[in-house]
Amino acid sequence: MVKPTVETLVTGGAGFIGSNFVLHALDTHPNWRVTTLDKLTYAGRLENLQKVIDDPRHRFIEGDVTDAAVAGPLVRASDIVIHFAAETHVDRSLQEAGAFITTDVYGSFVLLDAARESDRLRCFVQISTDEVYGSVEKGSSRETDEIRPRNPYAASKAGADRLAYSYWATHGVPVIITRGSNNYGRHQFPEKVIPLFVTNAIDRLPVPLYGDGKNIRDWLHVEDHCRAIDLLIEKGNAGEVYNIGGGNEVQNIDLTHRILELLDRPTSLITPVEDRLGHDRRYSVDTGKLRALGWRPRHPFEEGLRATVDWYRKNEWWWRPIKEADPAYRDYYETQYGRRHDGRA
Ligand code: NAD
Ligand code: TYD
């Protein structure tokens, strides 16, 4: 029997996790038609969707989730919405939090409000984050724990997370909320620690390690994250929160050593720098609820990190233009090497 077409809207699908999800979805669901809605901010890269740009089952729409005239009709024409679009970098939220409130909170409101009027929507996945729990000194966060976000990014995500819940509780929107841990893999913008350190190390540039380097993050391979979201669309309960974590808790200093080793670079590249303000010490999620549905991460961290480093090594075309467009990187390179980054005199 031919399965009916499922109209799926992916917001933020030109970003890191969103693009991995779009590619995964088109590969694994022959009956899905996917619409990507993305504003193409600095973090949105159309090249992430290169493989599917001409796929008749995919269409790309450049637009802003805060624009109800664009986003509303797309939500109302969908069976499934997966809402990734957000401002995502903690350090940027410390400098300028306005865009985080606008996109992460207000943007989620616009989509949820449109979802409220839909009579066909069967699942709205609100992509939240483990950062909403705040710093976890001991043990692991469970979905029922209090949320205590400690930086503007985490607070804006927490606002959206609870707003999504409220649209389920009050209006019956079929919302599922996911709280994923730190992702890694292809297409991650080189401002986040793994791609930043990998690309700096490739260029033999210093890697700036915050504070004492002992902060802990739980690393989740982006493909394992995509499979978890997929499973929750099928088996998750509306109105519920699900943690997603890789079970790979690593101190930043150890992560840095592994990256340098994989690239055969000296540890002298490690440059301790001033700590991030309000730097959360540790994140850790209990994933029992998701595992009870049958999910397990498939990528051991050692292997996943090696493959990710290889991806950046082989895909300079992807990241070098991004870094070269950044004046801070150009200055840094020139001071470091006494020559221009592009090899010109
Ligand atoms: P990213 O920064 O790589 O991509 C964000 C995407 O959203 C970009 O394509 C950008 O152009 C788009 N976007 C931004 N503002 C928009 C707007 N107003 N309208 C439409 N599109 C807009 O982010 P990511 O790392 O892929 O994260 C995706 C989601 O997953 C976010 O909601 C983030 O909070 C969440 N999350 C990320 C991680 C992680 O480790 N990266 C972990 C857990 C949860
Ligand atoms: P990041 O990739 O920004 O993710 P998040 O803050 O969302 O966890 O940072 C991961 C960890 O790496 C975090 O503890 C901060 C640290 N870090 C550095 O030490 N140096 C850097 O240049 C960056 C960007 C992050």
In angstroms, what separates the terminal alpha carbons? 65 Å
Kindly provide the radius of gyration, computed on alpha-carbon positions and rounded to a whole number of angstroms.
20 Å
Largest sheet: 7 strands, parallel
Q: Can you say what the CATH homologous superfamily of the domain at 6-185 and 220-244 is?
A: NAD(P)-binding Rossmann-like Domain
Q: DSSP strand (E) fraction?
A: 15-25%
Q: Could you give the count of β-strands?
A: 12
Number of helices: 12
Give, in order, the helices and strands.
EHEEHEHHEHEEHEEHEEHEHHHH
* Strand line-up in the sheet with most strands: 3-2-1-4-5-6-10
Percent range for helical residues?
40-55%
Folded structure, characterized:
The chain has a domain at 6-185 and 220-244: NAD(P)-binding Rossmann-like Domain (Rossmann fold, 3-Layer(aba) Sandwich), CATH 3.40.50. Helices cover 41% and strands 17% of the residues. It contains 12 helices and 12 strands. It has a 7-stranded parallel beta sheet, with helices on both faces. It has a 3-stranded mixed beta sheet with strand order 7-9-11. The model has no long low-confidence stretch (mean pLDDT 96). It binds nicotinamide-adenine-dinucleotide (NAD) and thymidine-5'-diphosphate.
Compose a concise summary of this entry:
The protein has 345 residues and is of the alpha/beta class.
